[in-house]
Amino acid sequence: MTKEKIAVLGLGIMGSGMARQLLAAGFDVTVWNRSPGKAAPLTQAGARAAATPAEAVADAAIVVAMLADDSVSRAVWMGEGGALAAMAPGAIAIESSTLTGAWIADLAQAASARGVRFLEAPVTGSRDQAAQGALRFLVGGEADVVAAARGVFDAMGSALVHLGPVGSAATVKLANNYLCGVQAASLAEAVALFEKRGLDVEQAMSILTDGAPASPMVKAVGRRMLDRDYAPHFLVPLMAKDLGYAAQTMASAGIRSSIAEAARQRFLEADAAGEGHRDIAAIVEPLRRT
Ligand code: NAP
After folding, report:
1. Residue 176: pLDDT above 70?
2. Does 136 contact ligand 1 (Cβ within 6 A)?
């Protein structure tokens, strides 16, 4: 049986793994990326590459976007050569990037005005889960649209949580990354402290990773900090973006999150210090150098 035509917009660390999983599941996949070179491994695996978002989505039943931030999402869906105006009525737009609820609400409205069905579906999991089809999708939107897109989610992920109407998933995803960002920032400070005090850092770290602070985040990112392994799973500027979006979201609910702002500063400092192309574990580097 021929499977549906799917378009994937954005072939970064996450989008490339997601597109590959769709191909592996037998979908007919067209990809688009700003930097066209990233499409090459996917065309070798059977995808078609399009020159613009509009070209990629023209005959797609479902479009999945995995892009950096609100402004990129806006340009790719609604800018010149953008996806939304080229989609067929009744097709499904899935926005999986980590974005603000405010932008997601605007995008959902624009999709609805064109007769395009819309889901927000940010993910938990990182580079490795994207590559393995093991992401968890946090979904906001109508239940019948979630059901219609189920096969695509199943190809890219191992779990789906339908959190409610559009906007629900952005709220939960930003809270999720808020807690992750704060943990990574405080961990970087602790690692730098251990090193500056001349402690046995492996032993000191084991107290954190075996004790109450242990979390998958602390364990994985702590290991990478100690190993100075900064091959990107999740890039420094994207966590700064998420902490900024989390602070804005909190503020819109009347909560002033000085904690999100403080953690965000650590990521901005690391970006300014030249660590922007590296994994979030690299935020320890500027602290090591002070
Ligand atoms: P990434 O590797 O940096 O990819 C970013 C994507 O956005 C690339 O396709 C990039 O295109 C595109 N892009 C950036 N600026 C653009 C512009 N001005 N115009 C058009 N396209 C542009 O990041 P990622 O890790 O895949 O993250 C993608 C999204 O997933 C982000 O919202 C991130 O917060 C979220 N996320 C990431 C993780 C993770 O662990 N990595 C986990 C969950 C969610 P180019 O290739 O041309 O630069």
Report:
1. yes
2. no
Are residues 175 and 138 part of one domain? Answer: no
Domain interval for residue 239: 171-288
Whether residues 31 and 157 fall in one domain: yes
* Joined tokens for residue 140: 């906001």
Q: Catalytic pick from 3, 5, 38, 173?
A: 173
The answer on 275 and 200 residing in a single domain is: yes
pLDDT-derived band at 3, boundaries 50, 70, 90: confident
User: By percentage, how much of the chain surpasses pLDDT 70?
Assistant: 99
Distance 230 CA to ligand 1 centre (A): 17
Tokens of 247: 């602070």
In which region does residue 71 sit, left (phi positive, over 0), alpha (psi from -120 to 50) or beta (all else)?
alpha
Query: What's the whole-number mean pLDDT along residues 132-136?
Result: 98
Kindly give the pairing relationship between strand 92-95 and strand 117-120. Answer: parallel
Q: Is 187 in the same domain as 258?
A: yes
pTM of the full predicted structure? 0.97
Q: Is 173 a catalytic residue?
A: yes
Cα–ligand 1 centroid distance for 97 (angstroms): 8
